Each structure stands twice: as C-alpha cells, then as structure tokens.
Amino acid sequence: MVGVPKPETSRPLDAITAATLNPLFPRLLLLPKETFLTSPSNNPSMNYKHKYSVVKDLYDTYVNADYDLKFWLKECKKEVLELTAGTGRVTIPLAKAGVKVTALDISKELLSNLKAKAKKAKVKINTIEADMRTFSLKRKFPLIIIPFQSIQELTNPEDQEACLRQVKKHLEDNGRFIVTMHNREKRIMGKYVHPKSSKKIFFSAKRTFNQKTQVGTAFQTYEEYGKKGNLISKKIFKNNYYVFRKGEFESLAEKCGLKIKNIYGDYSKHRLNENSPFRIFELTK
Ligand SMILES: C[S@@+](CC[C@H](N)C(=O)[O-])C[C@H]1O[C@@H](n2cnc3c(N)ncnc32)[C@H](O)[C@@H]1O
Predict the structure, then answer these.
(1) Per-residue pLDDT tens for 272-285?
(2) Which of the residues 71, 150, 193, 202 could staple to 84 if both were Cys, CB 3.0 to 4.6 A apart?
(3) What is the pTM assigned to this prediction?
(4) Which atom of ligand 1 is nearest to the CA of 148?
(5) What are the CA-CA distances from residue 82 to residues 38, 143, 191, 263 (Å)?
C-alpha cells in the first residue's frame, strides 16, 4: 500500500511493536495466535496477487483518504479504465458521478469488496481481475488512470515497462493516461476502530529502503486490543514499493512510446518541485 492513510490520532511505537519490527527479533514467538503474515516469498513480483489479502477487512478503515477525489472527478468525465482499483476508493465516487468505469485489479478479494460497495451504492461497474502488466481487453479507452501512487506497487523496471506497454496498447489515439507517484516519504501511525469487531486497532509502520534495488519496504503492523487493553490479534503487512529516481519514469515512458503532456506536484496541479508531495504525470501516445 503506497497511499497515505488519514489516522484518527497518532502515538509513538509501543515496546511490543518496536520489538517485533526489529528484523533480528524472533517475531513469531511473540505474536498471539490470530496472526497473519504476508506471503513469505522473497520475490515481490510473486506477491502482487495476494499481498493485500492480509488487510482485506481493514483496508477501507485505514485507507480513508479522499485528498485526490476532487482531482479524479475533474479529470474523468465520460469513460475511464482504472488500473489498481482495489476496493473502489476512487471507482465508486467516479461511478456515482456518472463516469463509466472499468475497474481492474489483481486482487480478487479487494475486487469483491468493490463489487459489494457498488451494489450498495447502486452503481454499475465493470470489474476485471487481471494483472496490470499483462491485461488484454480487446478494446481501447479515452482515458486510463493509475491512482493512489499504485504504479509503485510494481517493484522493478521490467514490470513497470510491461505495464506502460499495456497502457499504450489500450489507449485511443487521442487518449490520455494519468499516473501518480509519491515524491517524498511519509511516516504513518494511527489509531482506528475495527470495522467488524469495533475493537481498538493500533497501526504503526516502519520503513526500510534498499538503495540497490530502489525498493522501499513498509512493515505495517495492526494490533487489535480488547476492552481491558489486552492484545487480541496482530497482523503484519509487508509492503514493497518502488521509489522512482528523478527522471526515471520520464525515460521509461519515452521508451514505451508515451509522451508527457503535463507534470504536477500535487492534486491541485501545482508545479512539481522537490518539496511536492506527489509526482503526477499526464501522458499521451
Ligand atoms: C494502494 S492499493 C490502491 C487501491 C485503490 N486504487 C485505492 O485508491 O484505494 C494498490 C492496489 O494495487 C493492486 N495491485 C498491485 N499489483 C497489481 C498488479 N500487478 N496488477 C493489478 N493490480 C495490482 C493491489 O491489489 C491494490 O488493490
């Protein structure tokens, strides 16, 4: 997950979390029974499909961001192909505004949440379970978007290139492609309420960065506490994300035959500078 959640409150790391986040600590010995860990595979690209399974019930609780919705509602007018739609955080508001959305994601579980939300909101959304590196829809779109910095989910340049090539194939001649990424790191911590059990959840994240592979890793920990303050369950979501160097995405886009029309530093379309929170690219063929 590379979005920026909006926590209710924040607090420092508690001792148990700090200890379990230490890679040298025998983590499993400390964890209560109901603990789920993400796939142990060391190959991040093998994890794209299942990585969000561990937070499928929690995603909408801790990712309640809406800072980008105004932007997407302005950009998406008639029809859009949304890659990495997830649980429909962007998809549902677009569909409610009358935009015809095709929502693609690799996670069956997150898409099933999206479908339930669409039913509840009484909107029709075409959902597609597919990989953004290999999808083939036999039709083209006037607009393709990758919101919420999710291009960074692809943790190596080969995967990113494969995705951009598929985007180009699915773009109409005058079509636009809008993709966003983080420009700066942000540390997240917060306190939430579990959507089903209503118990308290403490969320904390620790990040590491590998200079060689340009892959950042966020170890996101969710601790669920009972009424007496007892730790009931703990989930650790290990999220790998790619950090683009300055100019790197631009070169990759050019290599894939995509031209940059505009670059913004935030969702209000301010000019990009080194303090901008995001890098937002609008491209054409
Ligand atoms: C941070 S979530 C963003 C979800 C949603 N766009 C939002 O704004 O909340 C990243 C999404 O990317 C999806 N994803 C990761 N790798 C993918 C891939 N290779 N192909 C398609 N979707 C992928 C995940 O399943 C997840 O739903």
Answers:
(1) 999 999 999 999 99
(2) 150
(3) 0.85
(4) 8
(5) 25, 9, 30, 19
